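Case study.
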Amino acid sequence: MASERSDLRREAGQRTRECLLRTTLQLLAARGPEGLSLREVTETAGANVAAVSYHFGSLKALRDSAVESALESYLDAQLDALAPLSADSTLAELAAAFARPMMQALAVGGAELAILRTVARVGIDPPGNWGRLTPKFEQTRTDALRVLTARLPGVAHEELVFRTRCAAGLLNWLVLAPIGAELATQPAERIEQWLVPVLTGALEGHAYPDTTTIG
Amino acid sequence: MASERSDLRREAGQRTRECLLRTTLQLLAARGPEGLSLREVTETAGANVAAVSYHFGSLKALRDSAVESALESYLDAQLDALAPLSADSTLAELAAAFARPMMQALAVGGAELAILRTVARVGIDPPGNWGRLTPKFEQTRTDALRVLTARLPGVAHEELVFRTRCAAGLLNWLVLAPIGAELATQPAERIEQWLVPVLTGALEGHAYPDTTTIG
DNA sequence: GCAGAACTGAAACAAACGCTTGATTTCTTG
DNA sequence: CAAGAAATCAAGCGTTTGTTTCAGTTCTGC
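After joint prediction, the assembly is written out as follows.
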């Protein structure tokens, strides 16, 4: 059939495109968002420099495509983990669900953890054009806040948002900093047994003392 | 006196050197560690490109010098804040002292916060040659652990180290991420009233439940 | 005053950067 | 089979990068 051969051709045509995306993600994790070189990407992917302009338009567009796809799969994984939560879930269950994708990547390591490192950088870099993903992004926050408001009725909404962002930021930091690599060498249960209490404690907060001034 | 004029000359000679260091710190905060350009530094500082090679040897050496000086002043400030702590200080007092330099920078904003952003990046970037500062760095951790072990006798030492690094990482994240900029717009008391409970809760931890698996 | 160190200036260096061009090959379609 | 779309290729574009060179200036020490 002509259509079948057409599909094969199309796949062959898109093969270098996807290969470029894959190696871009690898190099982004290794070199950081600024250290991405057009030549290095194409040579690693076994493609020509013109392939980037042809398939994506520019190196920056290729980078954004790669980051966006990684970010979306992470948000999907986090939403899946948060979905089973209900209004009477505990804070620890919330923390465990919220951290599940990161903990899984830490336990597995390798390419998966490397990709998540790029995702975590998104939280630092100047707010890019991830506008398409803001619904999913805000959905994770909404899911988390539902449990938080039920369990911590005395805390203001803004403060709960702050704590949620702190929890997310701490997870991002763990993937980026050397401590994450050290943590990845531990068994999976150990990772969870160390990380979940910290996250739960951060979300729960601690009574603010009357005087914190030292000395 | 000849020596006096010699000093003046030496100061005049070192003036461009210090000016280069200052503008390097500003540009590092604005452009990030990779976005530092030799031309931009020298033109902003009003110096010649050769001045960098002459005074520091290379652009990378200039950058390392600038980062190291900023890192050292931060560690000194943190050590000053941790010094008054005793064995019977509370976890909240520890958290407040540990976060004091960062909170101060967030409250003041401006150049001070920008410099701290460069300091926070050190925790992400590949372990550089800050070997000279490792004593001070480990001293902050030791000071924190003294209070932690006294207040949380049931928790293993390694886990307390992990929590300390989590607290430090969370502070770094707050300076780097957009949430830090938002937090900086709040009054100083609000910053402390929001941040200290989160840090205290993270350090204190939360009882790990028997089953955290969701669904 | 004079030799020499300390420092600054403008110009040029090779290398790497992202991107474009035009020819060539591969495959689909009528 | 021929026309044209899709894709890849080598080569070169102009710019920017960090660094070097060397002449010139400014000050110190004897």
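Observations recorded in class. Chain B touches chain A through 52 residues (CB under 8 Å). Residues 2-204 of chain B form a domain with the Tetracycline Repressor; domain 2 fold (CATH 1.10.357.10). We will return to this complex in the next lecture.
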